[in-house]
Design a protein that fits this description.
3 helices; 3 domains; six-stranded antiparallel beta barrel; six-stranded antiparallel barrel; Thrombin, subunit H; 34% strand
Length: 344
């Protein structure tokens, strides 16, 4: 059975059983239900948030039901119920009656399984977005001319490129350098947004330092100097392990948001100023904090800053060397670019 690469996708409950989760005291919410019937449209993250103060600690709560041949998937109609084992809460599962099982196979389509988060939005985003370093842009091929000296605006038009075209690569993305991502603390350029312009396919090998391509898709008119980069197979890793970072994340900030809006809410995609070099990895969860206000102490007659206020959670789903893409899982208040991210 084929699992689609970039889609709402099939994410197993075992995705929450990953290494890197540190043992911690499970804190149930006061209103955690004794039983819950899984519904269509639920997500594992949402369900875990109903039970736990810290949803990424789900593995401390989940308890395998040995009567189920494959307990790592849950489906609409399944019943979750709380039990206590050695004084600790555990969550078990009764399989819904409408799900047919056999000793060797699961007949229900895998894409009915409950995902951790709605990844259709992430999938569409990853198809068309990248963060490129200055060197990657400078060293890539580029559009030098259009057919008949005109700009290209529709599939079927031709374009000529110069620069490195790797052997064996036939499909290329057309990108334009967008906004630069700047670290708000150090002032370092972390990378550039690679704006998706379209796709092209190679028509001829490099002749006299010029390569001919045919436009296959456009989002807007192609311009001279637009960059040509080999298409990457971008997939959402089916081994997401939502967990706290292993390293301490210092001076982390949300530095941009997709769409350029001023306010950020749940399920919005943001850019973080931390990446692989800082120890961030796909699946790691960070808490979002808003800087405490500067207030005037009327007794001491001086200004004092109140502590930062925790305002939400975000999870990294694509990590680059110096920056990362993350999705906001929870927003307790309106968020904005410049809010901090820290270990949860």
């Amino acid at each position: 059975m084929k699992i689609r690469a970039i889609s709402v996708g099939v994410l197993l409950l075992t995705l929450l059983l990953g290494a890197g989760l540190q043992a911690a005291e499970v804190e149930l919410r006061d209103n955690a239900p004794e039983t819950y019937i899984v519904k269509k449209g639920d997500t594992l993250w949402g369900i875990s948030g109903m039970y736990l103060t810290h949803p990424w600690l789900w593995p401390e709560l989940w308890d395998v039901n040995p009567q189920i041949d494959n307990p790592h998937l849950i489906y609409p109609g399944d019943e979750l119920y709380l039990v206590w084992v050695d004084g600790r809460p555990r969550l078990r599962l009764n399989r819904g009656k409408d799900l047919k099982l056999s000793p060797s196979m699961r007949i229900s389509p895998l894409d009915l399984a409950i995902p951790i988060i709605p990844l259709d939005e992430i999938g569409a985003f990853l198809k068309n977005h990248r963060i490129l370093g200055a060197g990657e842009l400078a060293d890539s091929a580029y559009v030098v001319a259009g057919s008949q000296k005109r700009l290209i605006s529709a599939p079927g038009d031709r374009v000529f490129g110069r620069g490195p075209f790797p052997d064996g690569e036939r499909a290329y993305g057309i990108f334009r350098a967008g906004e630069s991502y700047i670290d708000p603390v150090t002032g370092e350029v972390l990378g550039y947004q690679a704006q998706d312009i379209g796709n092209a396919k190679l028509l001829s090998s490099n002749r006299d330092d010029v390569t001919e391509l045919e436009i296959t898709r456009v989002t807007e008119e192609v311009r001279i100097t637009d960059r040509l980069l080999p298409l990457e197979e971008r997939v959402i890793d089916a081994t997401f392990h939502p967990r706290a970072p292993d390293a301490e994340i210092k001076n982390g900030y949300m530095i941009a948001v997709d769409g350029g809006v001023s306010q950020i809410g749940a399920m919005d995609i943001v850019v973080l100023n931390k990446g692989l070099r800082d120890g961030l990895e796909v699946g790691q969860v960070l808490a979002i904090y808003q800087t405490g206000e500067l207030v005037f102490d009327e007794v001491a007659q001086e200004n004092v800053r109140i502590p930062d206020v925790r305002a939400g959670l975000t999870m990294v789903f694509e990590a680059f060397e110096k920056a990362s893409y993350a999705i906001v899982l929870k927003a307790d208040r309106v968020l904005k670019v410049g809010d901090k991210v820290k270990n949860p």
